[in-house]
Structure formats: C-alpha cells, structure tokens
Amino acid sequence: GTENGNVVEGETVVTYYYTEKPVTPPTPTDPPKPTEKQGSVVVKYKVLSSDGTVDQTINIPDYEDTPLTTVGTPYNTAENETEKPNSITFNGKVYEYVRVDGTENGNVVEGETVVTYYYTEKPVTPPTPTDPPKPQTPTPNAPTPPTPSRPTLPHTGIDNSTTGLGIAAIVTGILTLFKNKKKDEE
C-alpha cells in the first residue's frame, strides 16, 4: 500500500517491514582506573587470666583506630589514653596494661591490621588496719574570766544616740506638764 494519498473506497493495507540493527557497545572515554588498595587498623583489648591465657568471658569492645583508608596512610594506636589506656575498668574490676601484640604505629597495609593490648586484673589490696588512736589525758585549763559585755538594745533601725535624746525629750515634756498643772491647781 501507499503511505500517502487519498482515502478510497474499500480497504487499503500499508505494511511496514523491520530488520534487526546490530548494537555497538559505547566506547569508553576514560580507561578504567586501577582499584586503590585499602586497609584499616583495629585495636583489641584482652584480659589475661592468672595462668596467662586470654579470659574468654571478658569481652571489652574493640576500638577502630583507622577506618578503611588508602594503603600507606600513617596510623598510631598508642597516641592517647583512649586508644592505649594504662588501665581499664570493666564490670566493676580494674585491669592494668601488661603488653602489646602487633605494630602500634606505622603505615596502613592492605586488609585489616590488628593491634592487641593485654591487661591483667589489678589485685585488690585490703586496707591495712591502723591502731586506734590512744585517748589523750585531759589537761586542765585555767578558767578564763568572763569578758564584760555591753548590754545591747533591740535592733529597731534607730541609732542609739538619737534614741536616748528622744526619750529624754519626752520625759522632760511630761515632767514640765505635771509641774505646770500643779502650779495651775494651787
């Protein structure tokens, strides 16, 4: 059939035919980069029992000193008290540092580098009893004479010197009134 034209009476059939086109892969613009090697450093804390073996019942959390990073990056697991404490308190007990397995500082290598610090339980030393204090013989003290004290007036917020003058003025006024009244009565 014809793709273009006027409509005519009856049926017009137009058929399209397709063929498969081969797909060509895209050409990369940049060559693939080699994968960088990476590593990390983890610090573990272990407690040794009295026979020198690791006590498996005590699990102190690990510390990630250097997260996954490029090989060759410097690390140091002993640079502060958080990474390498001299003692650890865990479940109410104190453990003291005794030794290390692994390299405490260096450069990151491929994979995981593990540095393990070992601790032993610090022995609890009972307090040494002390002799009770000996009673002291009392020494008689000579009595001290009482120091004379000045009588104190209640705190009214008024100065003592003006209080005395006010009272004297009132008493004088009252006496003058009585005296004048007596004269008037005579």
Fold topology:
Blueprint: E1 38-48, E2 63-70, E3 74-76, E4 87-90, E5 93-101, E6 105-107, E7 111-121, H1 160-185
Parallel strand pairs: 1-7
Antiparallel strand pairs: 1-2, 3-6, 4-5, 5-7
Question: How would you describe this structure to a colleague?
Answer:
This protein is α+β, with helices and mostly antiparallel strands and 186 residues long. It is built from one helix and seven strands. It has one helix at residues 160-185; strands at residues 38-48, 63-70, 74-76, 87-90, 93-101, 105-107, 111-121. Strands 2-1-7-5-4 form a five-stranded mixed beta sheet, with no helix packed on it. A two-stranded antiparallel sheet has the order 3-6. It starts with 37 loop residues before the first strand and ends with a helix.
How would you sum up this structure in a few lines?
This protein is α+β, with helices and mostly antiparallel strands and 186 residues long. It is built from one helix and seven strands, in the order E-E-E-E-E-E-E-H. Strands 2-1-7-5-4 form a five-stranded mixed sheet, with no helix packed on it.
In DSSP terms, counting alpha (H) and pi (I) runs of 4 or more, how many helices? 1
Biggest sheet: strands side by side, in what order? 2-1-7-5-4
Main pleated-sheet profile: 5 strands, mixed
Low-confidence stretches: none
Roughly what is the average pLDDT, rounded to an integer? 81
Q: What would you report as the Rg, rounded to the nearest angstrom?
A: 52 Å
- Look at the helices and sheets and give the structural class: alpha+beta
Distance between the termini: 162 Å
Beta-strand percentage range: 25-35%
Q: What is the number of E strands?
A: 7
Helical amount:
10-25%
Quaternary form: single chain
What series of H and E elements makes up the topology?
Answer: EEEEEEEH
- Net shape: flat
